[in-house]
Design a protein that fits this description.
Distance between the termini of chain B: 41 Å
Strand content of chain A: over 45%
Structural class of chain A: mainly beta
Largest sheet of chain A: 7 strands, mixed
Distance between the termini of chain A: 33 Å
Oligomer: heterodimer
Helix content of chain A: under 10%
Mean pLDDT of chain B: 91
Low-confidence stretches of chain B: none
Number of helices of chain B: 0
Low-confidence stretches of chain A: none
Mean pLDDT of chain A: 93
Shape of chain A: globular
Radius of gyration of chain B: 14 Å
Order of helices and strands of chain A: EEEEEEEEEEE
């Protein structure tokens, strides 16, 4: 298994509070991604990073921000959580050569 | 823009029967295609990928998929279902490396197909 961890694995928070999810990799891959998974929608890309301090928006980026200060860490922040952000969040990594992505175990976030 | 359509959100088969999960894609360039499997409360695991080499791709756990450009399809099959195959399966598409830009590697996923295997 690819060395990807996510923390926390589960979180319950209240509407309006800030939340930060962390993705940590030990593979030294350049590309990192944040997805959310919702029933009937598959996985949708929130933000991605193509290097330290290099990030870009995905399909559903509104209400989310990211940061990448080190190769191994990619942080996803919900500035003010809303109930519509209740979801399972997955981090993924990839190298440019093989093309496929490797996924972390996910974080289940509930916003009450 | 890329898109993926998985026909059938739920597929049910008997143990030992053929598994066929359908995936159609739309892409402006020759794509890379992937099938992932997700077991309950776990992350996604790569089953197989197509990267413009052989059109029939073999993956793990006895699964295979055939790339058909004329039909823009990448259906997943397994000759004989096993109880352990019960999971959710996702088809995904990305640009190839030669497409350039920083968006290489971004995956667009289908909605997923839940496979149920009956004894």
């Amino acid at each position: 298994d690819a060395g990807i961890t996510q923390s926390p694995r589960h979180k319950v928070t209240e509407t309006g509070t800030p939340v930060t999810l962390r993705c940590h990799q030990t593979e030294n891959h350049r590309y990192m991604y944040w997805y959310r998974q919702d029933p009937g929608h598959g996985l949708r890309l929130i933000h991605y990073s193509y290097g330290v301090k290099d990030t870009d928006k995905g399909e559903v980026s509104d209400g989310y921000s990211v940061s990448r200060s080190k190769t191994e860490d990619f942080l996803l922040t919900l500035e003010s959580a809303t109930s519509s952000q209740t979801s399972v969040y997955f981090c993924a990594i990839s190298d440019r050569v093989r093309g496929e992505q490797y996924f972390g175990p996910g974080t289940r976030l509930t916003v009450t | 823009a890329q898109s993926v359509t998985q026909l059938g959100s739920h597929v049910s088969v008997s143990e030992g029967a053929l598994v066929l999960l359908r995936c159609n894609y739309s892409s402006s360039v020759p794509p890379y295609l992937f099938w992932y499997v997700q077991y309950p409360n776990q992350g996604l695991q790569l089953l197989l990928k197509y990267t413009s080499a052989a059109t029939l791709v073999k993956g793990i756990n006895g699964f295979e998929a055939e790339f058909k450009k004329s039909e823009t399809s990448f259906h997943l099959t397994k000759p004989s279902a096993h109880m352990s195959d019960a999971a959710e399966y996702f088809c995904a598409v990305s640009d190839p490396p030669w497409a350039g830009g920083t968006s290489y590697g971004k995956l667009t996923f289908g909605q997923g197909t839940i496979l149920t295997v009956h004894p």
